[in-house]
């Protein structure tokens, strides 16, 4: 290889060198082939050339002889024709000669001048070299002409070339055969064994150990092969030994390198440990002088290396601790080889004293002699602070008001504080070691606790309300703060639980929430909370496409009771009403108090509007029974308005507004009833609002006026009294009847002032009539419930009578039956007081209310007024006739007067007269009249049926 490289690098400067270079690259086989080829080819070529030359010479001689013969023949043959100058005789001879293809031309010249005698020329026969041969033609001794023949040697050349090719072919075949034979011999005898020898030699060179080769040949090659085989065996053995030694050596080297590396690594590690150790470490010699110090030690002392190394370590120990430290070094480290940790203070030149823990370890050399001391110092500042913190934490742990419990990862309680034992009732000994689940409230599903566990496990902390069970079994709600303590790997360690008993706060919160949501008096949902409930129910109904109903409930004349009997009674009544409303509802329905005497009912379970009317009827029925409050037996009727979802409104406000409008409608229709909302009610509600506003100004503007309807005695036809009936001279709407504004005035609390005006005006007018000299008559004034139950009613009337100068006996008060039964006891007292003043008292609309006969006896009234609804159909209607008859009889039996109102027909008159009714009032006699007209009627005298 090396040779090849060097050889190839030799520049081929000369052809010889190039050939040499080429030859060195030839294989042995190529060399053999080359030698054999050259060896065979050279004699072959020479032989061929010689043979060819000899042949050419032979053929040339033969060709010359033939030329001479032809020339001779022709010269002889033309002797006669030329002599005779007979072309005919000469021409055939020439033509015959021209048949020889080697003759290009024949020219026969005579001795005469001019044209040749015969000339035949075929130039196309010229292919090689031509020779011109001439011979004189003798006739006798005389030369008579000359024959010239031009010969072409092309044929001769062709024959020579063919001969050459034959020789070349022969030599070629000989060469190939010879080569093949030689190569065969070469291969079997030389090249193959040589190749084997070469492989053996290569194997030796490559230190390989091929299988042993057996040489049987007895020639030089066999000898060489055997020698090589021996050498191979020897080499193999030697290499084996060498390899073993090498391996052992390598192993040795590897081990040594490893040991050195381990040593270096260990040294580096310990050096690194020394350098990076957070503890201050220094080496001091046996005199106590610092030999080496790590960065932590320098940092601890706050000095550079130069200020420490070489100095006695004792200089850096606080003076108070120096002898103790010395003692530890001398008597512990030097004697025992080491000492346990002890505390001293270091003196730091620039930063004062530092508490440290100190340790010493004796250093020995290989012979065990002490050569120094390792001094290890650790800053105790943080540890001391931590200890203080721990101490503080322990104090906090024990003295905190919140119960603290620590739970180990296996869910067992590992420690609790004093507050824990106080709050949960367990002594620490009883609870530590127990599973935390003993504190669970058994009524709460385990799943809830598992969820809490999962929450703080995932988040690391959790806080919230958790129910806990005390040792006593009692359960309380606690605010628990759970914190997970994780180790540096993030694994959950202990769990710390802070438990604050919030049962009181919770109760207070619930109370507050309750107060915020529920009406304090009735404990019904208040306006705001009821709205929430209703809006929820509406949203739910919207989702499910179902119906809801809202019932607006307003108590009729509740204000009267409140004002007359006081707020305590009113409150009690409202509570009772609330309770009865609740009782009237089915589960799922709800009632709330909007304020005052206004309640609202939410019906969830509703199939149709009929259901709502059913509930409304039940409410009416439940409230119909008298309420007994503080010995007062009170009758309170409600008016209800019903609005349906979604027909009458799709939101709470609309539904309430429409139910309210419907409720007013119910009030307008006699109260104690219910009405479903209809679209026109809102218009009516607006109208009512407008009326209310105008009513407030009507008194100031003197827009009220009284009409008087005569009441005549049936026996004489004389007008014995009048009923004062209010009218409103509305600036735009003209004269308005009381039914259109009295209920509104009552509802809106305006009736007090209006009623007072009516009383005063009626008394004034009656007195005026008397002053005019008209026959004295009673004037009956209607009292609304609110007026009737006013505490100072008697006082007011006394004042008015006094003011107007009317004698009390000419004033009658009409109170409806439904009003007086609202509070029987109060009524009795009020009626007695009024009676004592000398007034007349009549029960209006008698028969329509719920008065009991026993009460009637106790009511000090003078007159019963049969309601127009009974009179209307007498005598035709048997029931009404019977009722009217019964009322007349009752009055007579009780010693009361009886008056029938709404008498319109003579038949009614006759029936009433026949039954013994005392007085009548009605259109038959006269409609209500202005004061002046009434005065005229009075002046006219008695009324008769005919007149
Ligand atoms: N608290 C007060 N209430 C009052 C006052 N003024 C009237 N009212 C009450 O208003 C109701 C309606 O009164 P009014 O429209 O005046 O009707 C009275 C008569 O006009 C009517 N009447 C009388 N006779 C007939 C008749 O033959 N047919 C018929 N259809 N109606 C008739 O009856 C009303 C009187 O009824 P009553 O009081 O029950 O006797 C009415 O309830 C009044 O009480 C007031 O100042 N304060």
From TrEMBL:
Listed InterPro entries: Biofilm_reg_signaling (IPR052155), EAL_dom (IPR001633), EAL_sf (IPR035919), GGDEF_dom (IPR000160), HAMP_dom (IPR003660), Nucleotide_cyclase (IPR029787), PAC (IPR001610), PAS (IPR000014)
UniProt organism field: Chitinimonas prasina
Sequence ranges assigned to domain HAMP in this UniProt record: 188-240
Segments forming domain PAS: 266-311, 389-459
Residues covered by the GGDEF domain: 546-679
Coiled coil: none
Keyword annotations of the record: Membrane, Transmembrane, Transmembrane helix
The protein, known as: EAL domain-containing protein
Domain PAC: 340-392, 462-514
Source taxon at top rank: Bacteria
């Amino acid at each position: 290889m090396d040779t090849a490289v060097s050889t190839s690098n030799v520049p081929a400067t000369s052809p010889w060198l190039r050939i040499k270079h080429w030859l060195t690259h030839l294989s042995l086989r190529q060399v053999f082939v080359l030698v054999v080829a050259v060896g065979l080819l050279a004699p072959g070529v020479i032989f061929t050339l010689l043979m060819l030359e000899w042949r050419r010479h032979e053929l040339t001689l033969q060709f010359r002889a033939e030329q001479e013969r032809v020339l001779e023949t022709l010269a002889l043959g033309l002797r006669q024709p030329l002599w005779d100058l007979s072309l005919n005789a000469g021409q055939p001879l020439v033509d015959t000669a021209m048949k020889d293809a080697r003759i290009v031309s024949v020219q026969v010249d005579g001795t005469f001048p001019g044209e040749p005698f015969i000339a035949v020329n075929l130039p196309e026969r010229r292919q090689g070299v031509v020779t011109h041969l001439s011979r004189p033609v003798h006739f006798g001794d005389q030369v008579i002409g000359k024959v010239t023949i031009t010969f072409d040697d092309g044929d001769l050349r062709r024959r020579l070339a063919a001969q050459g090719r034959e020789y070349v072919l022969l030599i070629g075949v000989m060469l190939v055969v010879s080569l093949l034979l030689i190569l065969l011999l070469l291969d079997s005898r030389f090249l193959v064994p040589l190749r084997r020898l070469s492989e053996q030699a290569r194997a030796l060179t490559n230190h390989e150990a091929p299988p042993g080769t057996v040489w049987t040949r007895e020639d030089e090659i066999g000898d060489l092969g055997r020698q090589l085989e021996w050498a191979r065996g020897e080499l193999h053995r030697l290499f084996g030994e060498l390899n073993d030694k090498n391996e052992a050596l390598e192993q040795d080297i590897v081990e040594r390198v490893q040991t050195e590396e381990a040593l270096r690594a260990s040294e580096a590690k310990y050096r690194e440990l020394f350098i990076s150790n957070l503890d201050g470490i220094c080496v001091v010699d046996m005199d106590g002088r610092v030999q080496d110090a790590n960065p932590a030690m320098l940092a601890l002392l706050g000095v550079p290396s130069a200020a420490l190394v070489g100095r006695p370590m004792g200089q850096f120990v606080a003076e108070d601790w120096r002898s103790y430290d010395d003692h530890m070094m001398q008597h512990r480290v030097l004697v025992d080889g080491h000492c346990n940790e002890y505390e001293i203070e270091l003196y730091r030149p620039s930063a004062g004293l530092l508490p440290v823990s100190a340790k010493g370890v004796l250093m020995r050399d290989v012979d065990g002699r002490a050569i120094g001391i390792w001094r290890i110092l650790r800053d105790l500042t943080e540890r001391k602070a931590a200890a203080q913190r721990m101490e503080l934490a322990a104090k906090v742990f024990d003295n905190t008001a919140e119960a603290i419990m620590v739970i180990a990862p296996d869910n067992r309680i590992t420690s609790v504080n004093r507050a824990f034992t106080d709050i949960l009732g367990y002594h620490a000994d009883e609870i530590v070691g127990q599973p935390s689940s003993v504190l669970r409230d058994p009524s709460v599903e385990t799943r809830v606790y598992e969820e809490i566990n999962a929450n703080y496990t995932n988040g690391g902390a959790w806080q919230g309300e958790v129910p806990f069970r005390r040792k006593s079994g009692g359960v309380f709600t606690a605010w628990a703060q759970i914190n997970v303590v994780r180790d540096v790997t993030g694994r959950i360690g202990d769990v710390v639980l802070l438990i604050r008993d919030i049962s009181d706060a919770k109760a207070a919160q619930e109370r507050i929430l309750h107060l915020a949501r529920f009406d304090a008096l009735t404990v019904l949902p208040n306006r705001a909370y009821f709205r929430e409930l209703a809006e929820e129910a509406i949203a739910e109904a919207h989702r499910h496409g179902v119906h809801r109903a809202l019932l607006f409930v307003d108590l009729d004349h509740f204000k009267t009771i409140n004002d007359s009997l006081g707020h305590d009674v009113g409150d009690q009544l409202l509570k009772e009403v609330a309770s009865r409303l609740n009782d009237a509802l089915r589960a799922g329905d709800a009632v709330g108090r909007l304020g005052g005497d206004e309640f609202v009912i939410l019906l969830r379970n509703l199939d149709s509007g009929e259901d709502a009317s059913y509930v409304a009827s039940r409410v009416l029925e439940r409230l119909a029974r008298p309420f007994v409050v503080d010995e007062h037996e009170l009758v309170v009727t409600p008016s209800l308005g019903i609005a349906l979802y979604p027909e009458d409104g799709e939101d709470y406000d609309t539904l309430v507004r429409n139910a309210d409008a419907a409720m007013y409608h119910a009030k307008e229709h006699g109260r104690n009833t219910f009405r479903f909302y209809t679209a026109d009610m809102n218009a009516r509600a607006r109208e009512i609002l407008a009326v209310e506003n105008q009513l407030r100004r009507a008194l100031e503007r003197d827009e009220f006026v009284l009409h008087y309807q005569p009441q005549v005695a049936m026996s004489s036809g004389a007008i014995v009294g009048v009923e004062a009936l209010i009218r409103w001279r509305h600036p735009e709407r003209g004269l308005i009847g009381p039914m259109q504004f009295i209920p509104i005035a009552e509802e809106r609390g305006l009736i007090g002032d209006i009623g007072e005006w009516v009383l005063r005006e009626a008394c004034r007018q009656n007195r005026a009539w008397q002053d005019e000299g008209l026959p004295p008559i009673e004037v009956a004034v209607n009292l609304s419930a609110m007026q009737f139950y006013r505490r100072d009613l008697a006082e007011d009337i006394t004042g008015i009578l006094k003011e107007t100068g009317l004698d009390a006996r000419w004033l009658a008060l009409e109170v409806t039956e439904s009003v007086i039964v609202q509070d029987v006891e109060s009524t009795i007292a009020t009626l007695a007081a009024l009676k004592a003043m000398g007034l007349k008292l009549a029960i209006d609309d008698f028969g329509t209310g719920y008065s009991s006969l026993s009460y009637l006896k106790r009511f000090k009234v003078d007159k019963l007024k049969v309601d127009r609804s009974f009179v209307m159909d007498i005598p035709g209607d048997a029931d009404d006739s019977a009722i009217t008859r019964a009322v007349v009889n009752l009055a007579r039996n009780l010693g009361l007067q009886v008056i029938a109102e709404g008498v319109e027909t003579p038949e009614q008159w006759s029936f009433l007269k026949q039954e013994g009714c005392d007085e009548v009032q009605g259109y038959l006699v006269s409609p209500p009249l202005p004061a002046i007209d009434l005065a005229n009627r009075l002046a006219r005298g008695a009324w008769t049926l005919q007149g």
